[in-house]
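Q: Protein A?
A:
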Amino acid sequence: MAIILLDRIVAAAAAVRRVVTGQADVSRATWVAVLAALGVVVATVVSIVSVVRTPEQLAPVTLDAPPSVDQLGTPGPGTPRGQARPAATSPTTAGSPSASAAPPPVEPSTSAPTATPSSASPTPAALAADFAIEDKALLSYGATVTISNPGPVPATRWTLAITLPRESLRVSAVEGARATQEGAVWTFVPDGSVGQVPGSASTRVTFRVNGAAVGATPTACTIDGIACGGLSN
């Protein structure tokens, strides 16, 4: 640009010198060329002065860097090129506090617990028994066992066991119970409603021992495992 400017200045100066000295034919076209050359020279000088005074105006214009892939997001297969997808937001975790409302507090119950009555039946007291011989004959005798209940609860179940000295002896005419034999031991138990012992009362079991009147006295008598009274050894 400097070379072109100097060339224009030299050409303009030569043309002016020829016009002034009369060495060239002065025509209208020549004057136009001379004026144009002077105008170019003046414009060039003004441009040079402006550039020298304000060099920052000629600084190259810098462009902003294009946004990165992380800023725009990765476009999906159906997204046109040049359009950025919005950044994906993380879904709310189902177990986080914001996912579900907190359960309401449980208020303690102010009502008193209802007492449940016990379904177990009361246990009767231990029974007692007394053995006695009432009617002796030549080859037999009658016996009575009195069973007493000292407690208020009726006794519906009990076991009276009488051991005779020999297995050949037989028991008959049983009243107040049901009798079974096993060897020399005879067992008496209540027979339905017969034989139940009311509370604070007693009941009687009677029977007859057949086979001998002498030496046929029971060797043992128990009521629920407790020895009977009135039995002489």
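Q: Protein B?
A:
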Amino acid sequence: MKVIICEDDESQLRFIHTKLKQYAFIEHSGIDFVLVTSKPEDVLFYIEKNQADCYFLDIELESHITGLELASKIREYDPLSSIIFVTTHAEMLQLTFTYKIAALDFIIKREQEELTLQLIAALETAYQKYKQLGLVDERHFFQVKIGELIKNIPYDEICYFSTSTQIHKVQLQIKNGHYEFYGKLKDIEKLDGRFYRCHKSFIINIDHVQEIDKKNRTVTMSNGEICFISFRSIRGLQEKIKKVSVYQ
């Protein structure tokens, strides 16, 4: 789970980061603090090209962008991420409803011991929500577990799955990288209508098919990779792609 912290008070920023990082190090090594900043502009720049899963935001930021406005921008990019507000202003709670942000938690800055407990509780709740995200079919995420790391990958980013050279492992290929995990292709092919078992060693996402070469029995995917396709699967793939295009 990727976490971003934005707090304009440098001492508070260090405190929040330190307490959360200490807890994550002991309890959940799969939590990664990808951005810790006092500037909301840094967050906006990050989310333009990257995605995070949990945000701890101060509401009153020393900027022309408030924490509420920043949260609204985050929601435009990602409606599913967890947003947790940390502020000294309890009266600002009502505004989170006005902005329709659907915050996971609203923490009032109190003495450090109580604040620490609230921060940890919010992080734990966000992490449990993140773990569940990939298990709920209607969200259309595939969850990969690699040791302590949990990664939720949207179905539409997946190019294909293939058998690995390592026994009992599967490779998942996205446009700009890949993951390898323990699993079986037969447990994946029925997950979503866009996944098609074109070969005993490949399940492709038909939305990423660029070209079908009948002669060489290969499929070129959107990331330039080549997948094999069995002779008997060529017609089935063509019909599936045609059927999907009719409904688009």
